Each structure stands twice: as C-alpha cells, then as structure tokens.
Amino acid sequence: MEAVNQALFLQINASPTMPHWPIVMALVIAKELIFAAPLTLAGMWLASGDERREVALRATLVALLALGINLLIGMAWYHPRPFVIGLGQTLMPHAPDSSFPSDHVTVLSALTSTLLYNRQRLLGTLTLGIAIAVAWARVFVGVHYPIDVLGAGCVGWLAYVATVPLWRRAGTPLSRMSIVAYRKLLAGPIAHGWLRA
After folding, report:
1. 27-56, pLDDT tens digit by residue?
2. How far is CA 179 from CA 57, 68, 146, in A?
3. Given CB 3.0 to 4.6 Å as the disulfide criterion, which of 57, 59, 75, 109 pairs with 153?
4. Amino acid 196: pLDDT
5. Domain coverage including residue 44
6. How many domains does the chain have?
7. What is the average pLDDT across 90-96?
8. Cβ neighbours of residue 87 closer than 8 Å, sequence gap 6 or more
C-alpha cells in the first residue's frame, strides 16, 4: 500500500522541469484556499436567515470534531511527510509533523459534507471543488501523499455522520441559543442595518 501511495505521489508532485506558473498557482491553492471555509461560514451566518445559520453552526462543530480526530490519529500514528524521507520536491516549508490526514482537506470535507447533506447544494458543490483543488495542490507542492488527502476526506465525512444523532437532540436548541446571543451581542450593527438580524 505504501509503495502505491508513494508512486502516486511522484506522479502528482511537481517535476523539477515544471514551468513557474503552475507552481505559483498550486502554492496559492495549497496555502490560501483554506480561507474559503471560514469565509463561507461567516457569510452564511451574517448574511442569511436562521436556517442557514443553523447549517453554518453545525458545519463549524463538525469541522472542529474532525480536527480533533486528526489530532488523535497523529498522536497514535506518525506518518512522515514526503520531504522527511527525501521523496519528491517540496515547494513550501512545513513542519515535519505527521502527514496523515491533511487538516486542510479535513476541514473542507467536513464543510462540504455538512452543506450537501443539509440541502445547500450550490455552496456544497463549490466547497467540494475547492476541497479537490486543495487536495491536489497539497500533494503537488510536496507536503502530503494522496492517501493523506483521501483519508482527510473520509475523516470529514465520518465526523459529520458521527454528529447526526447528537444534532437531532441538541442542534436546534443550540442554534437558537447562538442566534439569540448573536442578536444581543451585535444589536447595534443589526439596528443600523449593517448586519442581518
């Protein structure tokens, strides 16, 4: 399995003769597109109605759970990143922590799963495309293996599935409490019409 993983990595990873523009594009995607997740959640909360706010809150909690699962996996099993074993090209600096699974793709997968399962098809499809682009870029620039990003996709989805029974019991009351707190804390900007009530 590891031999296949490394062979696939070498197929995707940037080659030394690669032109400059795809490297720049990959670096931007690998480092910057993760910010689509908090921007999407903030936009859903600040500019939408209560139904979408509930989905945004749920997605945030799913992503936090998924990152917690990643932390436990990393503590239980260290998998060296490609540059640690001298494999391929590394185009951006990164700590030599465990490569499996990718935190970036985990967060985007958790967000995508929550959006798609909660009838937010347009946003869910958009974040799925971003997740795929980030997964490719993280391998291309040499900081992850293909198995890292595939595993991350699974962790994000599993985190969503794990929260389903808990959300059925506590999701609506938690959302209502959060929305009430938001309206009280930001009553001024809401009254001025700067934020949606």
Report:
1. 999 999 999 999 999 999 998 789 999 999
2. 10, 25, 39
3. 109
4. 86
5. 36-185
6. 1
7. 94
8. 6, 9, 10
Contact 178, 135 (CB under 8 A): no
70 to 13, 86, 139: CA distances (angstroms): 23, 24, 18
Residues of the chain above pLDDT 90, percent: 90
| Dihedral angle computed from the Cα positions of residues 53, 55, 56 and 57, in that order, rounded to the nearest 10 degrees | 90
Does some domain include residue 190?
no
User: At residue 52, what is the residue type?
Assistant: R
Task: Specify whether the CB–CB gap between 140 and 31 falls below 8 A.
Answer: no
pTM higher than the cut 0.85:
yes
One-letter amino acid identity for 66? Answer: A
> Pick from 152, 180, 190: which is nearest to 53 by CA?
180
> Residue 117: which of 185, 141, 109, 34 has the closest Cα?
109
pLDDT in tens, 141-176: 999 999 999 999 999 999 999 999 999 999 999 999
Cis amide leading into 101 (omega within 30): yes
State how far the alpha carbon of 75 is from the alpha carbons of 12, 145, 178, in Å. Answer: 27, 18, 32
180 lies in a domain?
A: yes
Range 12-29 average pLDDT? 94
Is 91 a domain residue? Answer: yes
In a domain, 10, yes or no: no
Q: Please tell me what DSSP assigns to residue 93.
A: -
